[in-house]
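Notes from the pairing session

We agreed to fold both candidates in a single pass and log them together. This is the raw record for the first candidate, unedited. Please don't reformat it; downstream parsing expects exactly this layout.

Candidate A
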Amino acid sequence: ARYGGEEFAMILPQADAAAARQAAERINAAVRAMEIPHEDAVPYSNVTISVGHATVIPHAGSNPIELICEADRALYCAKHAGRDRIIGAE
């Protein structure tokens, strides 16, 4: 689902951190394979994506906003690390 201007979110039921990373790697590879031109992106000439992912085992009192914030922090770490990255929340 679109989550903000240039951001998307996915909910992966029953996925642990390894499964979330595998999904992110598949999506990243699919975007690269499309070879969408991006003249303004330096050093990349094609559109790339950065991914931040987080997982949680819900329990009584869990707050979904915390999960979203963790994934968002991981995304911005990926972007600041040079873009075209996948980073999971610790």
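Candidate B (folded immediately after A)
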Amino acid sequence: MKAFALPLLVLASSFGWAQTPPSPDGKSPETLVSALYDVISGPGGQARDWDRMRSLFAPGARLTPVVRRPDGTGAFRPMTVDEYIEQNRKFLETQGFFESEVAKTTESFGGISHVFSTYESRLKKGDKPIARGINSIQLVHDGTRWWIANLTWQAEGPNLPLPKKYGGAS
């Protein structure tokens, strides 16, 4: 049996997003992840560049936080980029929020890449972290640039410390 696949660029064109102009943010998986942290970070009273945030994500992308309920069971809620912005805009722009990458593991093959990015979150630069966890970021390349296809994250907790191989102490 002979298998064939349409090039990603051809498939992407059929979905209407391959013609997007090249963006410095989409130059590589590293620049895309860096832009993700940059666009949500800033002091209280500073508006975020939500158009830039939207430009990082492929059409149909989802952002999915994973949390633990008090009884230990898991819960998650997939959101679109606009739902994420609507849900978090007030907090990020009023309170202030800085998130930075402290460790990273990247696996790539052709036009796909997966980044396990360990983060620390702070309300002000230089403060003690208020949260740490892992962003699992799936990226795709359309022949022109990289896009975030999905972003899933989970914070560490008392019963879920970050593993040493991902920047944790345990």
